[in-house]
Specification:
This protein has 134 residues and is mostly helical. Helices cover 51% and strands 9% of the residues. The longest helix has 17 residues. α2 packs across α3. The protein is elongated. A two-stranded parallel ribbon has the order 1-2.
Length: 134
């Protein structure tokens, strides 16, 4: 198992089915996709990381080896999501798949539409000019 840094770029154009987002949500929330590997593949992975687990001073049982592998994957995988904030799709997806919010940092690269700026400003101004503490 290589210690190779990998970036996975996923745009809203790649969402052929909403089920794809369930997989991304699992990666962001737990670092793993359930049932991704067949039992034979999983055993081969466990066997391949066992020497490194021992070298790290950990007990080389099945659970520790698997956890070591999952942590290594999480350390080396960088997930980049590129989605448009226009319309309701992003908001609905964030509500349905909380990992999209809890496991990410949101960067806005393009200017907001004027309507969005006015809506946000209206909310803050209607609260007496003070934002509520989170």
């Amino acid at each position: 198992v290589e210690k190779k840094k990998v970036t996975f770029l996923f745009t809203d154009a790649h969402v052929a089915e909403e089920g794809f987002l369930e997989l991304i949500n699992n990666i962001l929330a737990s670092g793993m996709v359930p049932a991704l590997y067949a039992d034979e593949e999983k055993e081969a992975i466990i066997g391949s990381v066992r020497p490194e687990v021992q070298k790290a001073g950990l007990v080389p049982n099945r659970e520790t080896c698997w956890s070591f592998f999952v942590n290594r994957c999480a350390d080396n995988l960088h997930v980049v999501l590129a989605m448009s904030p226009v319309g309701d799709k992003l908001r609905t997806r964030c509500r349905n798949f909380p990992g999209l919010v809890n496991g990410t940092v949101i960067d806005w690269f393009l200017p907001w539409p004027e309507q969005a700026l006015l809506a946000v400003a209206s909310v803050f101004l209607s609260e007496g000019g003070h934002a509520k503490a989170a």
